[in-house]
Amino acid sequence: MSTTQVDIVTPDGKVYEGEVNMVSARAVSGELGILPRHMPLVAPLKIGVVRLKHETNTEHVAVAGGFIEVTPDHVTILAEAAELKEHIDLDRALRAKERAEKHLREMDKDHKHYERVRLDLERAVNRIDIAED
Ligand code: ATP
User: Fold this and answer.
1) Which of 6, 43, 51, 73 could be 27's S-S partner, Cβ–Cβ 3.0 to 4.6 Å?
2) Is the distance from CB of 95 to CB of 121 less than 8 angstroms?
């Protein structure tokens, strides 16, 4: 089966580098499924899971927004933060979720930090969903 090279890069460095059979990612425009020899594209990503499918297993990566760039033999994901499922600290994410929920309860929707805290919550829930899956 053919493969494509995948790199997942964050400001902290490279989180993943390898050959995969298929990549799926949550773009702003909808779910993307990328097979080798896909047409070139660049798309913004939502907070979500990136699935890296191999012949016998699938790896899951929590991605906190960013961009995906696709060429026929290469997929690059530039993410603000990304963690492989096995590197997610579940307790930390549960604490982050509680903290964000508490802040949101105490905040008006038009508070200048409301959207930032809502995104904190979304990242924490994404990490929890992936870690517990
Ligand atoms: P926290 O409030 O727990 O610090 P955060 O939402 O502020 O979380 P981010 O800004 O999304 O964290 O990410 C900052 C850095 O911390 C990134 O390098 C990210 O990979 C890492 N990180 C955040 N939460 C976790 C987690 N639960 N497990 C592993 N790494 C994490």
Assistant:
1) 43
2) no
